[in-house]
Design goal:
The protein is α+β, with helices and mostly antiparallel strands and about 325 residues long. It has helices at about 10-15, 35-45, 80-95, 135-140, 165-170, 205-210, 215-220, 230-245, 295-319; strands spanning about 25-30, 75-80, 120-125, 145, 150-155, 175, 180, 195, 200, 225-230, 255, 270-275. The chain is built from nine helices and twelve strands.
Length: about 325
């Protein structure tokens, strides 16, 4: 096991040899059109069953609702009016403003030429493949493992359905399957094997990566809102994209998951957002619970030493 917190290279921590560059996703919500092609491609390739009767939810133009054992990619629809758009841009200005004095005549107009009256925020959510993955840390059977690409994968045939991984994920991604099916990855076209209760989530199409292919969702996305590649290159591309949007006055743009000093050490799936993370159902400051283990062990050791010292003093005092 590697370190439990802070900046890290998950491939090196997993001791793979030879080492491959860490792979990941960059999901650019500014060009997502909400077509759900990624959802369909993911379900098709991984043999995941449909969610319900394909009826729209009462709260959104959506039928899947959230990520789960059957839905490894989920496109959220968020409706915003003019006031919400202005609030998003103001919060973005606060993120990029350094509070430095400006030179006379150097004032920049950061307002877009045409203020939007209405917009949909559409975001294709997926497993974050965290640098420090709580689901992996708490798995007692080794069903969850770190691949040579730095991603986190569940092995259906090893999972015992204990469910420890479910509360360990700070993003609420992983879930146990309840419909009794788990598609074998080595038998395309075969009927799903009955195995109830196993944990399921995005594998970043590990089986496709082994064959030199890109994940099904990225392959299918018509606008290239979902990009796949080397993690470091995607983070750099995301930052460049944010800078271009800021130059156009789109100050609401921000990158999520690229901070290696956050509570999960940064994520393999990085997102370009147009509002606060909470608007998309993402935690603003995700933190993996296992990051606290070193401090907990230290405090436990100090407490145990104190109890032993107290017992020794009491014993010697009676002597």
């Amino acid at each position: 096991m590697g370190q439990l917190s802070g900046p890290s290279d998950p491939v090196a921590d997993a001791r793979w040899s030879p080492q491959h560059p860490r792979k990941g996703f960059l999901t650019d919500t500014s060009i997502c059109i909400g077509c759900k092609a990624c959802e369909v491609a993911c379900k098709e390739w991984n043999h995941n069953p449909a969610d319900g009767e394909l009826e729209l939810l009462g709260s959104s133009y959506d039928n899947t609702g959230a990520l789960g054992a059957n839905t490894w990619r989920h496109v959220a629809f968020i409706e915003q009016g003019r006031d919400a758009i202005e609030e998003a841009r103001e919060s973005g200005r606060q993120l990029i403003s350094l509070g430095m004095p400006k030179m006379p005549g150097g004032e920049e107009n950061t307002a877009p030429p045409d203020t939007d009256q209405f917009r949909w925020l559409m975001s294709s959510d997926v497993c974050k493949h965290c640098t420090h993955a709580g689901c992996l840390d708490v798995c007692p059977t080794g069903a969850l493992f770190r691949t040579e690409f730095g991603t986190v994968v569940v092995q259906d045939d090893v999972c015992n359905g204990c469910g420890n991984c479910v509360p360990a994920c700070p993003f609420g991604v992983i879930e146990r399957r309840t419909d009794g099916t788990a598609a074998p990855k080595t038998a395309r076209g075969a009927e799903p094997v009955s195995k109830s209760g196993v944990a399921q989530k995005c594998t970043l199409c590990y089986d496709r990566l082994l064959d030199g292919q890109i994940p099904a969702c990225a392959q299918t996305c018509p606008t290239e809102s979902i990009k796949f590649g080397d993690h470091d290159d995607l983070v750099a591309e995301g930052r460049e994209r944010v800078a271009r949007l800021h130059a156009l006055g789109r100050t609401e743009a921000r990158l999520y998951g690229a901070n290696e000093h956050d509570g999960v050490g940064g994520t393999g799936s990085v997102f370009l957002l147009l509002d606060e993370p909470e608007v998309y159902g993402l935690p603003p400051d995700p933190r993996v619970g296992t990051a606290d283990l070193p401090a907990m062990f230290k405090r436990s050791a100090v407490a145990a030493a104190g109890m032993l010292a107290a017992a020794a003093v009491a014993f010697l005092g009676r002597s």
